[in-house]
Structures are given as structure tokens and as C-alpha cells.
Amino acid sequence: MEKLKRLGGQTVEFTSFPTVIGYAAVVGPKEAEGPLGKWFTETEEDPMLGQESWEKAESALFAKAVNSCLKKSKLTPESVNFIVAGDLLNQCTASSFGLRDLGVPYLGIYGACSTMAEGLSVSAMLVDGGYAGHVIATAGSHFCSAEKQYRFPLEYGGQRPPGAQWTVTGCGAVSLGYGGNIKITHATTGRIADMGVKDANNMGAAMAPAFVSTLLAHFQDTGKTPKDYDLIVSGDLGSIGHALAVELLKKEGVTLGDNYKDCGMLIFDSQTQDTHAGGSGCGCSASVLCGYLLPQMETKKINRLLFVATGALLSPTTTLQGESIPSIAHAVSFETL
């Protein structure tokens, strides 16, 4: 029996090292006005993207990001064996409707805001296992469709509490295969964590324990420490979750320094953009990874990146029924060649 490609209880160690072939990030106007605006592949002035509904606009984001990724990767839809995609809408309709005309075998996944890391993990496993030559991982979200589904339609005019985060209107897509100059070395699959947080407007506090759990598992399984990475980036804990994660890790004897950042804090300017605790949504970590972090790796300003996307596994139904908020985090390790 062939030896399993596993380290410890939660981590996969890739032996053939799937690489990043290409990537793209498409975002809305608010994201374009933020600190990372110049980095994104495409920016949209119209949050509707010329569509007649927010949901169709979100699907259009997927189509634009994936087609842009294909172009940058010099791939055709016919040369892609799988597309692994997910979003925040019921039944993953944003991604499935947006990508239905591509004709690529489609795997729909749901990890809430951790979806991009989950998609990259599955995609890398498919390539490393010899089941695919090229795979695209993609995830996205839209502020208006998320507000409509999880909270109240914008017309309601509800007030957002200080701990709330702003769902990113954006989509990121990465193509994996062989021949690129950024390799994926490990993927750590998270366990569900639930610390009893029930406030659906405080996602950072709900997700921080999952980030801590997965990060500790990654270090234990691989033998690595925070110093082994130029940058450790969490998905979208925002300012509240980021601070909580740092404190929780200190209690575990792990100190994160200046090499720890959060996508939800990077994508918006907290002083000028009124996004409260920061960004969130599937499109948050996906856009920051594909628009900012991978380009930094291409120029070798970052050589070792640990990307840990986090997600809150709640629904409007569970919130109304008084349930707590389970959370999840998945980690993917990138290194330049």
C-alpha cells in the first residue's frame, strides 16, 4: 500500500508540488477605493455589473475572474480538468450560474469565508494525486447579495453595529498545474470550532478560535513555527478577530509578530471607508490573495506564505433559532521556486 501523503492529524504534504499557473481578482468600486485598489486585475465602477439583480452581479464576478484567470494562465476551458468553486448564496448559485457556460467539470464547495483555502486544498490534491493537469479554484461574494440573504435587504436601512464587517464585492481565481514559480507545499484542513458566540454581527470573535486551532495543528503537524513564514495571513477575522486570535495564541505559547496580517484589515481603510471591523465574505481572502499576495510572491517580496482563510458556518435559520456560530479555517502553504 502506498504511503499516505499526510503529516499528523490534519495536514497533507504535497510531493509533486502543484504550482500556481495564473490568477486574477475582480472587485467592486468600494474595494477599488481601498489600500489595495491598484493591485486588482479588474475593478468595476458599477456594483451591479450591468445586471438586473445583485445575485446576477455576483455571478458576473465569477465569470469575469475565471475568464481573466484563464487568459493570464494561457489556458482554454477545454484544458482545465476541474473547477472548484464556492460562494455565500444558497446552494452556491452565484458560482454555478456564473460558470455554467464554461463547460468545465464543476465541483461546488461551501466553507463560508474559508472557501478559497478549501478550494485551493482540494485543487492541489487533485493535481498532486495525478487526477488533473489543470484545476481552477475560485471563490467570491457580493456585499448586497450577502446583506439580503444573511441580514436585511439594503432598502431596510438597518444600522450596522461596530463589530460588524463589510462583505467584499469581489472574486478571486487561481489556476494550478505544473510549471509555475509558486508551489503549494502543504494544506491543513481545519476542524469545526465553536466557542458559543451567538452574535451574527461579530464574525471575527466567532472565527478566531478556528484560526487558532488550524494554525496550531499546522505547526504541530509540520514542525514549522511562525518564523518559518514571511507572512501568515488570516482570511477575514477583521480587527476584532485579529486581536482575539493573537491573545488566544499567546495563551498557547505562540507569539505572532509583524508577519501576521488579516485580509479583512488589508482590503479596506478603516479610517476613511466606514467598514467598521473590516472586510469579510468569500471574496475577501480570495481577492486579497489573487490581487495582492500572489503578485508579491511573483516578485519575491514574499517567499513563504501561509494563507489561512476562516469561515463562519451559520445560516439565517440557525441564527433565528438561537444557535451559536460554528467556525472553520483551512491553511495552505505557498513557497516561491
How are the SSEs ordered, and which strands pair?
Blueprint: E1 6-7, E2 11-13, E3 19-27, H1 29-32, E4 42-43, H2 54-73, E5 82-86, H3 93-99, E6 106-108, H4 115-128, E7 135-141, H5 143-150, E8 166-167, E9 170-177, E10 182-188, H6 203-222, E11 231-234, H7 238-251, E12 260-262, H8 263-266, E13 279-280, H9 282-298, E14 304-312, H10 316-320, E15 327-336
Parallel strand pairs: 3-4, 5-6, 5-7, 8-13, 11-12, 11-14
Antiparallel strand pairs: 1-2, 2-10, 3-9, 7-9, 10-15, 14-15
Helix pairs in contact: 2-3, 6-7
Write a compact overview of the structure shown:
This protein is an alpha/beta fold. Helices cover 34% and strands 23% of the residues.
Shape: globular
Q: What percent of the residues sit in helical stretches (DSSP H or I)?
A: 25-40%
Mean pLDDT over all positions: 93
> Which architecture name of the largest domain does CATH use?
3-Layer(aba) Sandwich
Order of helices and strands: EEEHEHEHEHEHEEEHEHEHEHEHE
CATH topology of the largest domain: Peroxisomal Thiolase, Chain A, domain 1
- What about the largest sheet? 7 strands, mixed
Strand content: 15-25%
**The CATH class of the largest domain:** Alpha Beta
pLDDT < 50 stretches = none
